[in-house]
Amino acid sequence: ESVVVFLEPDAGPAGPAAGAGSTVGTEPAVVLRVADPRLPALLVTDQGATRGDGVFETMTAVAPAGPDGAAAGHRVRKEDSHLARLASSAEALQIPVPPAEAWRRAAAAGLRSFAQGSPGVDAVVKLVATRGPEGTPGGGHYVRGAADVGSDGELAETTEPGQLLPPHLTGTYWVLVSPVSAGLADARERGLRVLLLDRGFDSGAAERAPWLLMGTKSLSYAVNMAALRFAASQGADDVIFTSSDGKVLEGPTSTVLLARRVPRPDGTEGVELVTPLRSAGILAGTSQGTIFAAAAQAGWALGYGPLEPADLFDADAVWLVSSVRLVAPVTHLDGEELPQDAGLTEQLNAFLAEDLAPGDHGPNG
Ligand code: PLP
């Protein structure tokens, strides 16, 4: 049921040739090629596979509701924020990537094809850009062995040539559309037992050592996945990383938020929403950004770390937030029960659903 769309240079009528591309004006164009993700598609020398040398984004897309839905198509949530972060991750790794418009069209083509097979199903849309195959500067990244789906003519419908690309696109680029996993809502309802784990870097490392690529969404997530396995071996569901100097960072695939109820000058009670400081080496969460934008409009106070574990234990509620899992309450931290606030959780999910563009307020903006 999943669909993959490759973004490939349009080699023109002569067919694929390393480093070449047919031109529209003076630029080579990209062709979107829809393929079946169950079939092999990457060269074994692709540096995304051999070194985790690439970047990615995971977005969600809401299926249209109602009888006229199919025509409306899926609505991708926070697409601009994800595309902006993809571009900045790619810049940090110095991997050339297609422009935002090409990714947007690839996602739309993938979602159209996905909706034909799975109508009414919400989707996860993963964008991946790798450095491409080893030893083939300037070319050789054409994907072999992936059968095109759409021998029934569908391919023609989902192939959209004519998008402009810079001539130096030597990486491998694709969009994978799959159904949202059904278990996620359960995990959200149950809440999370979380372990605090040392990430091993101090909170100044990101600024001192940019080659560590902290705060970029690179494909090198083996460490994050190992932390999750460690947590599972201890009976926990998830992880909050701390720096070696004891600051709260982020989850392996999520941003940390906490809330404190605070007295307002007029005697009523307000809410302060706080997230760790991004400069400590964490990813700028798009969910955190959009939640903060809505919370600011609702008159909530916003705060940015530095936070320490004691702040989590003292908070009125703690959550892990991400694009796929949305807002999940933390029920236990290192085995200790944390206070819950179902009303605030609901409010944060409502803020997220507003889908506002993140403001540029605050040090994480
Ligand atoms: N931090 C890390 C390390 C992540 O991998 C993710 C998402 O996967 C997040 C935070 C949350 O980011 P977003 O809200 O943009 O999904």
Automatic annotation (TrEMBL):
UniProt-listed Pfam families: Aminotran_4 (PF01063)
Highest taxon above the source species: Bacteria
UniProt feature coiled coil, ranges: none
Keywords: Aminotransferase, Transferase
A molecular-function term among this protein's GO annotations: transaminase activity
Family from the record: Belongs to the class-IV pyridoxal-phosphate-dependent aminotransferase family.
Full protein name: Aminotransferase class IV
